[in-house]
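Final report, Chapter 2: Outcomes

The project's central promise was a pipeline that accepts a single protein chain and returns its three-dimensional structure in a standardized token representation, suitable for archiving and comparison. That pipeline is now operational. To close this chapter, we reproduce one record exactly as it appears in the project archive, with the input sequence first and the structure output second.
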Amino acid sequence: MEGTPLNELYELISYRHEAEFTYKSKEYVLLPEDGYLIIQESAEQNDNPQCLCRKKIPEIGDIPKNIIDAVFSEKCFDGKSFLEIEKDITVTCIL
């Protein structure tokens, strides 16, 4: 992964930060929203972004590692998970 090491991304996501990343020239967003941790297409690229993965998160406090693991293990990129494509991802922004 370029831009941010995976262990640092885990930590930032656990504190409810958002991450923007690219994979195969497409932009995606990883963010906590409406009680879920989701991966979706970037709204900047698509007026109606598709949600690729979502897992329920606690209303308050940090996001547990097991939930982040579940999102990162979901096979939502052409049958591959975030962890499987990690070497081809570039994190472009952490919010």
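Archive annotation: The helical segments are 6-14, 65-73, 82-85.
This record, like all others produced under the grant, will remain available to the consortium after the project formally closes.
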